[in-house]
Amino acid sequence: MDTIIYHLNSNEIDQSAIEKAGDIIKNGGLVAFPTETVYGLGGDAMNAKASAKIYEAKGRPSDNPLIAHIASQEMLDDLVEDVPEWSRKLMEAFWPGPMTLIFHKKNTVPDSTTGGLETLAVRFPNHPVAQALIKSAGTSIAAPSANISGRPSPTKGEHVIEDLDGRIDCIIDGGEVEVGIESTIIDCTGDAPMILRPGYITKEKIEDVVGETTVDPSILEKIEDVVPKAPGMKYKHYAPKADFVMYRGNANKVAEKIIGEANSKDAKVGIITVDQHLNLYEGLVGENVEVISLGDVDNLDSIAHALFNVLREFDEKQVEYIIGETIPEENLGTAIMNRLTKASGYQVKDI
Length: 351
Ligand code: TXA
Ligand code: MG
Hints:
Elements: E1 4-7, H1 15-26, E2 31-33, E3 40-44, H2 48-58, E4 67-69, E5 80-81, H3 85-94, E6 99-105, E7 119-123, H4 128-137, E8 141-142, H5 157-164, E9 170-173, E10 184-187, E11 194-197, H6 203-210, E12 214-215, E13 243-248, H7 251-264, E14 269-273, E15 289-293, H8 300-316, E16 321-325, H9 332-343, E17 348-350
Parallel strand pairs: 1-9, 2-9, 4-7, 6-10, 11-12, 13-16, 13-17, 14-15, 14-16
Antiparallel strand pairs: 2-3, 3-8, 4-8, 5-6, 6-7, 10-11
The chain binds threonylcarbamoyladenylate and magnesium ion (MG).
């Protein structure tokens, strides 16, 4: 398949490109587009065949439901019912933005969009290209992250081109995304909110708006026999091609352990650290070892922004082993560690 690629400037959107991309969605085709979190792979959420194509293009298991993206709060009412009052407060506080809410779906939403579930995840993204595309398509757009299933989520147009060129109808390259980590998913089908996937909007911020909020226990650590409520959280995910291990503990001891292990490998090794610890590695690693900082640990936004890009960079450099430090699991650190832990296949060791 020939994929049409549009390079758009998010501040000055080329409306004719948006209209053509909107027509592709209307006709049941697939368009990858930027959102503020990561790129999405979009198709008409109300068209069962379009959803089926999304699973195929990504190589995604069909029991893993899609998020429907809307461009106004009114669009929500066509998709779902039983919307509790407290969830409206969340919408007021965080929409448009990196938050996804789950409600009971209406019968008109096809089962293939929700992977057979009776609930639907909905997000109102805060990105001018995403909003323009949804409006132009005249429908809500089902969109998972625009990566081949299992790979790190795409934060740049070139990541999407790398994964999906030739597999979908159109890619809108809108440059680098702002946030770099996916939305927070909140289940609104119970009496109180429950976080099913930590994301850019932290638990602390959610609790400021709606009070006590629980977290699906199975997403924080791997618990045998407990299936996460968000089906996608059970798969190995966000994974670079290299074997990836992380060490948690005292910074000096962790660096010592990482350096010893990195230097003992007979292959290319990547070390993941933070700006504050770069000096612990200086002059101590062999020439096959590359040390990359995720950013300033006092500025977790910068780390979230760099995360998936760094994992893809190691792939490009054909690194065979990645050894990383953990970061504190507070505030946005919870979502960052969730992605790193899954990327490593849960290989996080305390020392
Ligand atoms: O920031 C984001 O959320 C990005 C951008 C493109 O909007 N999208 C995204 O989609 O991350 P995806 O498909 O990569 O991840 C969606 C997650 C999966 O873990 C899926 O299982 C879960 O949401 N999910 C979707 N619908 C659900 C539902 N009805 N109930 C429980 N979990 C659901
Ligand atoms: Mg994804």
